């Protein structure tokens, strides 16, 4: 008898079914070695992950090692599925661990460069230099005189000693009463700058440091000052920073005032762009972030940059002590009482720079404090107050100013007011000099795009005797067709009803020439028309000239001069004046340099210079910043007079003119030279004793290709090429070659190297026996 059993299973909705087991639940506990990806970024690390009961655990140290910032409550081991804010995914096929975390958990990234260009240590060599300017003037009424200005410098690693002065001599009818005839000394100074500590030391005749609301004086003494000029790679003023976050690997583009400034790749996490925006004033930055899928996020950030501030923590100062210089440019050695002066600027923050100044002498004490504040993106406010006591009389000075600049317009206001008997070092030794009671100036400019630019200025000065001068100036400058331009200016003294007006049109021509025509009206109502045609001297040298003519009330004015610039000197001559009085003049200026036991002549050297040496090889072309300067002389040297102090310049030689047996290991060098000095830049060249040798056997047949040649004097091995030729470059006066042939056979040959040759000689055929 059979039996049937029915089992009743209650109905369960699909939503109540338990989920299928995950891959982690389906596998037993294990230790996994997985590739770590964070926010789609491959960290390049393989980490150990523990799998227990369907959960993933890993050491917190592995996450911290990649710079991840974890909550303080996290222990040594992290349960990935239980950490708020962190999402994990296990890729079993790729054996990867994919983590997603908030961007602020990831390390900060700084993109860009806060330096203008790489730093190069400044160099100098021992040498001396003479700058000269000879000027001859002959006037119908005043007679003839000769003035010879000169500057002598001696320099080495210990610094630079310089002396400036002028020799003057009158001729003709005025020769007897020329009381200023003879030599007059101006300044004698020793200066040393340390580009490591950014300090400059000075002794001798110098000018004291000052702030915008204080005055400088000429001293004979010593001075210590901060000198940022020795490090042009540094940016001393605060720069804007543009910060953001990237959830996944992205690219970041920075646009400054509509122009692309930089492009960088960023990893997930917060980032800061520190690229230098080369502008001064108000600007607008647009930061565009683009991820791998092309999704973009754009952020606009206004900013304001000003060089009147110092970066936070930077200081700028000068301290001077000595005796006041009297009758400068009138007496050689005349000094007054002893004085001291000091100034300090300190970046308290990136928006506020503190300023202070102090002066002292036997009869004077002065102290002041001020500062510059950036008002967000709305400009800079400056203010200062100082107190003085001179001969028992006290006084105060207060200054207040504001500056704003943008691409469209700029505005500047400055007011300085002195009360009671305010005095400083400029007046204590000069009884005929007194400080003004008040000065005020307002300037503004407006960019009209294709219509040019407008400018306006108002100046109000109240002198010590209560006399007042107020001036108003208006200008308009507009480009015309091509490179021509139109300029209009009008100014008047308030209180006077008449305007002085000038209108000028400048038309450039080919061959570096330009024509300008102008009409003028003075405050007295006199009209005058001018026409001028000039041709500038070409940069490499040549001839330039200037022709001018003016017609109006009174005698007509005529002017003509010619300039001829050579590599060694600049010559000028000209004539100007009217039919009533005419002046003729001539000028010669240049420099003489002594370095490396040689003398070089050049145009005026105002700063630093370099003497390039090519080891005695002549007619080697030399380039400075990719521009041909000239060729080395018979001694293998060339003076490059255009270097700027502390600038990292590029100097090159062209080895194509060198003999074939001369080797040039380096054809390009970058070097910076200390201010006011020179440097001997050597390009080492090596003459190689080389030759191509033709080897044959006793039957006059070239030795087989691939035979090994050993030069016994140098130990250098070579291989025989086609037609039995072999090249060797370390030969001696007498040479022995041992050749290994196929089958173990060998032979030997001897020869002498020709004594003098600028080419690689061909020797042979030589019989190898």
UniProtKB/TrEMBL annotation:
GO terms for cellular component: cell outer membrane. This is Fimbrial assembly protein. It is found in: Cell outer membrane. One of its GO terms (molecular function) is fimbrial usher porin activity. The keyword Transport applies. It is a multi-pass membrane protein. Belongs to the fimbrial export usher family. GO terms for biological process: pilus assembly. Residues 693-755 form the PapC-like C-terminal domain. It holds the Pfam family Usher.
């Amino acid at each position: 008898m059979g039996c049937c059993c029915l089992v009743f299973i209650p109905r369960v909705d699909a939503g109540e079914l338990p989920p299928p087991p995950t891959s982690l639940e389906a596998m037993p506990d294990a230790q996994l070695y997985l590739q770590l990806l964070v926010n789609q970024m491959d960290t390049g690390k393989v980490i150990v992950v523990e799998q227990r009961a369907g959960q993933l655990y890993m050491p917190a140290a592995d996450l911290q090692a990649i710079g991840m910032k974890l909550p303080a409550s996290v222990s040594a081991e992290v349960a990935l599925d239980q950490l708020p804010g962190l999402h994990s995914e296990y890729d079993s096929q790729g054996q990867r661990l994919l983590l997603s975390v908030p961007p602020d958990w990831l390390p900060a990234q700084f993109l860009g460069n806060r330096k203008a260009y790489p730093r190069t240590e400044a160099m100098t060599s021992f040498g001396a230099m003479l700058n000269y300017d000879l000027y001859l003037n002959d006037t119908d009424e005043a007679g003839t005189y000769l003035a010879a200005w000169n500057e002598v410098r001696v320099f080495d690693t210990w610094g630079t000693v310089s002396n400036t002065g002028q020799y003057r001599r009158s001729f003709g009818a005025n020769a007897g009463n020329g009381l200023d005839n003879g030599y007059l000394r101006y300044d004698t100074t020793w200066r040393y700058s340390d580009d490591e500590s950014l300090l400059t030391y000075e002794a001798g005749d110098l000018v004291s440091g000052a702030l915008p609301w204080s005055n400088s004086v000429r001293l004979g003494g010593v001075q210590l000052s901060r000198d940022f000029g020795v490090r042009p790679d540094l940016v001393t003023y605060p720069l804007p920073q543009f910060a953001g976050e990237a959830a996944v690997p992205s690219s970041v583009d920075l646009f400054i005032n509509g122009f692309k400034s930089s492009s960088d790749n960023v990893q997930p996490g917060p980032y800061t762009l520190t690229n230098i925006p080369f502008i001064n004033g108000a600007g607008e930055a647009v930061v565009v972030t683009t991820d791998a899928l092309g999704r973009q996020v754009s952020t606009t950030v206004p900013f304001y940059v000003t060089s009147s501030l110092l970066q936070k923590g930077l200081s700028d100062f000068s301290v001077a002590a000595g005796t006041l210089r009297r009758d400068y440019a009138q007496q050689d050695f005349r000094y007054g009482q002893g004085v001291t002066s000091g100034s300090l600027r300190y970046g308290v923050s990136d928006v506020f720079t503190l300023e202070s100044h102090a002066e002292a002498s036997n009869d004077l004490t002065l102290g002041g404090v001020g500062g510059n504040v950036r008002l967000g993106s709305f400009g800079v406010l400056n203010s200062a107050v100082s107190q003085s006591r001179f001969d028992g009389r006290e006084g105060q000075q207060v200054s207040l100013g504001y500056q704003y600049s943008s691409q469209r317009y700029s505005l500047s206001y400055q007011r300085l007011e002195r009360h009671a008997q305010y005095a400083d070092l400029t007046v204590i030794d000069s009884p005929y000099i007194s400080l003004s009671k008040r000065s005020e100036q307002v300037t503004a400019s407006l960019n009209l795009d294709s219509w040019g630019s407008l400018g306006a200025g108002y100046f109000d000065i109240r002198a010590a005797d209560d006399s007042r001068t107020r001036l108003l100036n208006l200008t308009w400058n507009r480009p015309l067709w091509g490179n021509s331009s139109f300029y209009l200016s009008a100014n008047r003294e308030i209180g006077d009803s008449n305007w002085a007006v000038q209108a000028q049109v400048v038309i450039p021509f080919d061959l570096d020439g330009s024509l300008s025509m102008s009409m003028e009206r003075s405050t007295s109502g006199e009209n005058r028309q001018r026409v001028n045609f000039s041709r500038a001297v070409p940069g490499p040298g040549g001839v330039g000239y200037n022709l001018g003519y003016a017609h109006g009330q009174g005698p007509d004015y005529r002017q003509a001069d010619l300039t001829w610039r050579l590599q060694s000197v600049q010559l000028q001559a000209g004539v100007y004046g009217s039919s009533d009085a005419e002046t003729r003049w001539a000028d010669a200026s240049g420099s003489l340099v002594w370095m490396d036991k040689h003398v070089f002549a050049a145009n005026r050297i105002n700063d630093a210079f370099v003497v390039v040496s090519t080891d005695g090889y002549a007619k080697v072309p030399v380039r400075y910043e990719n521009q041909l300067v000239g060729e080395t002389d018979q001694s293998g040297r060339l003076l490059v007079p255009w270097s700027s102090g502390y600038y990292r310049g590029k100097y090159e030689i062209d080895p194509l003119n060198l003999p074939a047996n001369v080797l040039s290991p380096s054809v390009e060098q970058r070097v910076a030279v200390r201010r006011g000095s020179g440097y001997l830049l050597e390009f080492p060249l090596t003459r190689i004793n080389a030759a191509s040798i033709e080897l044959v056997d006793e039957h006059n047949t070239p030795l087989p290709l691939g035979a090994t040649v050993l030069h016994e004097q140098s130990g250098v091995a070579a291989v025989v090429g086609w037609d039995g030729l072999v090249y060797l470059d370390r030969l001696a006066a007498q040479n022995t070659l041992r050749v290994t042939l196929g089958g173990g056979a060998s032979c030997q040959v001897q020869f002498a190297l020709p004594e003098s040759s600028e080419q690689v000689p061909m020797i042979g055929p030589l019989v190898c026996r």
